[in-house]
What does this fold into?
Amino acid sequence: MTAKTPDTKLINLALQGGGAHGALAWGILDYMLEDGRLEVEGFTATSAGTMNALAFAQGMHEGGRDGAREKLKEFWWEVSKAGVVFSPVHGNPFERMWGFGNGENPFAYFMFDTMTRMFSPQQFNPLNVNPLRDVIDKVIDFEKIRSCKKLKLFISATNVRNGKTKIFNREDITLDVALASSCLPFLFHPVEIDGEFFWDGGYTGNPALYPLFYETTSCDIVLIHLNPLYREEVPDTAPEIMNRVNEVSFNASLLKDLRAIAFVKKLIEHDMIKDEYKHLYKDLMVHPIRADDMMKEYSISSKFDTDWNFLTTLRDAGREGMRVWIKNHFDNIGKKSSVDLNDEFLSEKNDKGGFFSKSRSPKKA
It folds into this structure.
């Protein structure tokens, strides 16, 4: 990592999971690296966010900003190649001719979804085949990750037995940790690490923010959302209902962490903390990057769509969104949150946040 200069600002990044939608975060990171004014102290991440964080960390270790950009691209290219064989939404040529091979619930995905509801991974996938394992093993060198001492990593997974979040620090990260962080329980066997079993971290921390409270120096958290918080329409079909249930559950833990930040900020603002305890609390500043108006247009099946055109469409949208976001919010970093936490996340008002308006949302791939 290059040293912070007077022209750069130090931040922490929080990356949500979301399958193929993680390519949006790839684009955001890609533009941030190209722009060069934000230095990352640490990542907290889960699932697809974990993959982006690992590629970023290794790339920075090997070749600085350009290395990080190349490693991110390499990772998503390998995901796309693996998806040609394993993705349940690519469909056959007939489906593509009729427009069903682009993540909008093609017949292949319908059959895949039905099977995962009727049979457990131990039944339909007894050998525990996971194409992501081969991708990660090919692209990520965990020795280099553990050697990247200037970048802090906090990777979330969900302990199956006790239902709690497990945070793996940089020095503990292995291939199994990466797989645990992204282990969807309806698709893969739980990942065993040191006698415990883990599922996707999104169920209990998407991502977990609290490691950034205690183990970093920067007070600025840039939070990259992949799961829409607000939807105008009430779902009335089975796929729409399942999609919204996933979004609500995967956002719930994040909202709890944001509520804790808002509570502490109120204590600090009103000088309600005794002097001898003030050093234990940070006045955190939160900077969300949201694209609700764009991401709500995609169905749950599109999270499995690894077509290169789709991934790069999301990447390019992320790059443009980050360009606009930096232009509008860079000056806030180090000074104040970019939003009112209570107003943005915790009030009961209908919230339509996002850096894309409906008129500017990119077309679906």
Observations:
- The CA atoms of residues 34 and 152 lie 21 Å apart.
